[in-house]
Design a protein that fits this description.
The complex is a heterodimer of chains A (155) and B (340).
Chain A lengths: L2 H21 L5 H28 L5 H21 L3 H8 L1 H4 L2 H14 L5 H8 L4 H21 L3
Chain B lengths: L4 E2 L3 E3 L5 E9 L1 H4 L9 E2 L10 H20 L8 E5 L6 H10 L3 E3 L6 H14 L6 E7 L1 H8 L15 E2 L2 E8 L7 E7 L14 H20 L8 E4 L3 H14 L9 E3 H4 L11 E2 L1 H17 L5 E9 L3 H5 L6 E9 L3
Parallel strand pairs in B: 3-4, 5-6, 5-7, 8-13, 11-12, 11-14
Antiparallel strand pairs in B: 1-2, 2-10, 3-9, 3-10, 7-9, 10-15, 14-15
Classes of the chains: A mainly alpha (155), B alpha/beta (340).
Chain lengths: 155, 340
């Protein structure tokens, strides 16, 4: 391509990008935020309620009652994923189900189910972390970095 | 220049090979759509009694090919070639179906443009006297395509509004050189070039394919001297809402008016509008099953005399997409006409 052709191509690409922008439906930001807020908020409230039940009725320590909340939420997500309901809630709620621990649980259970036909080892075993893997890698890496910083700079 | 060609990109079929029969087998969601009654078989379980969705996809594929032969009154073993493909890696659904059909097999991949590709090659084989009858088929399955291109089925991610829904289904046509009893004839075709206008959003495939569709259409009109008025319908495969709007806009900029009434996009028609499928249907089974169940019967009944069937493909792979590569599009146009 000579210089003129390159300029023409660039102009054509820019023009087309404008057209695509014009014709592609925009996601409803306010509606999305609202749905994420109330579903995500409800999940967090449920988690808090479970922790409170653990602390006051089951007489668990604070650490154990928080653990109970995580365990119950992960179980519920796995159940709802397994019976094919979770993805429908997630389609409605967006970040509302992704951000709490429910998102992580779903990211583990859905590939486990999906790749079962390829066998326990090369299917479920090998593909279990396809979605959650990056979260673990960067979550753990950043916690190490923060840990090292904290060691030198106590705040 | 070879004979049987007109203009730069268009080929003509002097013997106008006939489509003797067509069949479509689809999934439950497609069955609830406007063409529900017209499909030869609507399966009620996407797994279709198999061990995996990949197995189900191949069983659907085989079923559509067999039903197509049955409708034409031809034994499957008399078929001289099966030309077809699907969306799986290594086009496994078509290959597994071909294993059971035990007919000569040429596997094709043109992403969602596969049905046009197979019709063109099938017409060349039958018109040239190299094989007859031949089956042209294309199929896809929502559950295998999701895994291939996107996320596990039960993963809770929100779909973009421009995203399309892969059709579960296969459409098959039986082409023959002896075409007295044909339901329709293939008289010409324009083979499209790959066009890439820099779209890298894999959830907006309509936008990736529209420039290729516009390119092929313009070439076709240029080569043949025809206009949209010469066709009862201009049919695109699976541009969806976004891609259809873009195609009409691109044509308008080139001085061609394609009205909404003249244009039919299979992806926009196949599902029940009440279903939350966003921008429309997609997948190579989309245009193939609509062709077999809705378009060809209308030509057969004489409601339409001549249509341009153009399946559109986004030639993307998850690997190159993740590497930041943009999405090449391709579209092939096939002229289908009523009785000779």
């Amino acid at each position: 391509m000579d210089k003129n052709q390159q300029t023409d191509r660039k102009a054509a690409l820019e023009h087309y990008a404008e057209l695509v922008h014009r014709f592609t439906p925009k996601s409803h930001l306010a509606q999305g935020c609202l749905r994420a807020f109330w579903v995500g908020g409800s999940i967090c409230m449920l988690g808090q309620a479970i922790a409170d039940v653990g602390a006051s009725w089951l007489k668990l320590t604070t650490t154990s009652s928080l653990m109970l909340a995580s365990v119950v939420l992960v179980f519920l997500t796995a159940l709802l994923t397994g019976i094919g309901i979770f993805d429908k809630i997630a389609q409605y709620a967006g970040a509302g189900t992704v951000v709490p621990i429910t998102g992580f649980a779903n990211a583990m259970v859905s590939p486990a189910m999906e790749f079962k036909p390829e066998g326990w080892v090369l299917g479920t075993g090998a593909r279990l972390f396809t979605i959650a893997g990056p979260v673990l890698v960067f979550g753990i890496s950043s916690s190490v970095v923060v840990g090292v910083l904290y060691y030198f700079i106590r705040w | 220049m070879p004979q049987n060609r007109i203009g730069e990109r268009t080929i003509l079929f002097p013997h106008a090979p006939g489509i003797l029969a067509a069949a479509a087998v689809v999934g439950p969601k497609e069955g609830k759509g406007p063409f529900g009654q017209a499909f030869d078989l609507v399966i009620d379980d996407p797994m279709y009694g198999q061990e995996s969705y990949e197995q189900a996809e191949h069983a659907i594929y085989r079923e559509a090919c067999q039903r197509c032969c049955q409708k034409a009154g031809i034994e499957t073993r008399d078929v001289q070639a099966l030309l077809g493909g699907d969306l799986l890696n290594q086009i496994m659904a078509a290959s597994l179906a071909a294993r059971e059909l035990e007919v000569p097999f040429l596997g094709l991949y043109g992403a969602c443009s596969t049905m046009s590709e197979s019709l063109i090659l099938g017409a060349i084989l039958t018109d040239g006297g190299y094989a007859s009858p031949v089956i042209c088929a294309a199929g896809s399955h929502f559950c295998t395509a999701e895994r291939q291109y996107r996320f596990p089925l039960e993963y809770g991610g929100q779909r973009s509004l421009a995203a399309q829904w892969t059709v579960t289904g296969t459409g098959a046509c039986l082409l023959s050189g002896e075409a007295e009893t044909a339901m329709a004839h293939i008289t010409g075709a324009t083979i499209g070039q790959v066009v890439d206008m820099g779209i890298n959003d894999a959830s907006n495939m309509g936008a990736a394919m529209a420039p290729a569709a516009a390119n092929t259409l313009l070439r076709h009109f240029q080569d043949t001297g025809r206009t949209p008025e010469d066709y009862d319908k201009i049919i695109t495969g699976d541009l969806g809402q976004v891609g259809s709007d873009l195609l009409r806009e691109l044509l308008k900029e080139s001085g061609i008016t394609l009205t909404k009434e003249k244009h039919l996009d299979c992806g926009l028609e196949i599902f029940d509008p009440k279903d939350d499928i966003h921008a429309g249907g997609s997948g190579c089974g989309c245009s193939a099953s609509v062709l077999a169940s809705h378009l060809l019967p209308r030509i057969h009944k004489g409601e339409w005399q001549r249509i341009l069937f153009m399946a559109t493909g986004a030639l993307l792979s998850p690997t190159t997409s993740q590497q930041g590569e943009t999405i090449p599009g391709v579209a092939h146009a096939v002229v289908i006409e009523g009785g000779k």
